[in-house]
Amino acid sequence: MSIETPSTESTRRRQPWEITVRDLHVFLLGRGWVTEDVADLDEDGWPLSGLVNSPGWWCYPPSYGGAVMNRVDEVTPEQLSCHISTDDDGTNAQVLVTSAGNLSGCELHIVCGYSFDLDDRDYTGLDLADLAESLDVLEPQARAIDPRELIECRFFGPCGAQAV
Predict the structure, then answer these.
(1) pLDDT in tens, the chain (164 residues)
(2) Distance between CA atoms of 53 and 49, rounded to whole angstroms?
(3) What is the number of domains present in the chain?
(4) Quick check: is 12 in a domain?
(5) Which end of the chain is more exposed for a tag (fewer CB within 10 A), N or C?
(6) Which domain holds residue 46?
(7) Rounded-to-integer distance, Cα 100 and Cα 79, Å
């Protein structure tokens, strides 16, 4: 099942779960999340489905108390983030939320992933209440983390020792 959606250039077939992405987008923006700079937005201001399976559609800038850090791959701690993942044919989709932390390292600082079905094969959509419950825990944790602790652990502590 797919839905016809008008476009300025051409009409393409959308998967039913794609309509739910609009609700997710509005929900996250209302909680203080933003779209990543790399995300292309359509005329309605929501991420294009061509970025499905790309990390970081949305991020949570208040992570680390809002500290601004220069990005160094595999070193800079990751912000709390969210993106959409699908199977190979794009028919089944999940919302993936990644906690703030280091990409590798100790149990205390490593990022964790949480998944939420975008559909249940009956196309009933994402359960925003379940997502909100998890974000009610993850957002305060992300705001409270000291990025210096993560970076020091990465270079001088268990995170660095476990990354080798």
Answers:
(1) 333 444 444 444 555 556 577 788 888 989 999 887 545 566 655 555 444 555 557 899 999 999 888 888 878 899 999 988 777 766 677 889 999 998 887 888 889 999 888 765 555 567 888 899 999 999 999 999 999 888 888 888 877 765 55
(2) 9
(3) 1
(4) no
(5) C
(6) 17-163
(7) 5
Could you give the 3-state DSSP secondary structure of residue 33? coil
Within a domain: 80: yes
Q: How many CB atoms lie within 10 A of CB 57?
A: 25
Asked if the structure places residue 22 within a domain, the reply is: yes
- Coil vs helix vs strand at 32: coil
In the structure encoding, which two tokens stand for residue 124, read together?
């009933």
CB contact set of 66 (below 8 Å; sequence gap of 6+)? 143
Q: What are phi and psi of 83, to 5 degrees?
A: -150, 175
Q: Is residue 3 part of a domain?
A: no
